[in-house]
């Protein structure tokens, strides 16, 4: 990581670009998507469940989206085109309106097993 100085003399951390990163605008798809509001557990409920436990397991929240398989029938809806070809996601991408709800639902279901 390198640090650069901007016009206001502020130090800004910066990374060297070493690979391609896809950025897809799903606003139209998100607008047409039926919303499924999943109630998140309250913090006090989560802390109560953790109290007195010997171990706490943190599921991989950083790449949780990339662990949920997209139904093959829905892959066509998330197709994108770039100079290298036409592609569709097999795993849940970040940026879809229901990604967070689906990931949270899966994590809660797993933790209740």
UniProtKB/TrEMBL annotation:
Q: What is this protein called?
A: Transposon Ty3-I Gag-Pol polyprotein
**Record CDD domains:** RT_LTR
Q: Which InterPro entries match?
A: DNA/RNA_pol_sf (IPR043502), Rev_trsase/Diguanyl_cyclase (IPR043128), RNA-dir_DNA_polymerase (IPR053134), RT_dom (IPR000477)
Q: One Pfam family of this protein, by short name?
A: RVT_1
Matches recorded under SUPFAM superfamilies: DNA/RNA polymerases
**Superkingdom classification of source:** Eukaryota
Q: Can you give the residue ranges of the Reverse transcriptase domain?
A: 16-99
């Amino acid at each position: 990581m390198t640090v650069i100085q901007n016009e206001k003399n502020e130090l800004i951390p910066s990374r060297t670009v070493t690979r391609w990163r896809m950025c897809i605008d799903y606003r139209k798809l998100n607008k047409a998507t039926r919303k499924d509001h999943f109630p998140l557990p309250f913090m006090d409920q989560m802390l109560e469940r953790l109290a007195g436990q010997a171990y706490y397991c943190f599921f991989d929240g950083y790449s949780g989206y990339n662990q949920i398989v997209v139904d093959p029938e829905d892959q066509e809806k998330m197709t994108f085109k770039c100079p290298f070809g036409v592609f569709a996601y097999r795993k849940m991408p970040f940026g879809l309106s229901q990604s967070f709800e689906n990931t949270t639902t899966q994590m809660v279901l797993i933790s209740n097993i």
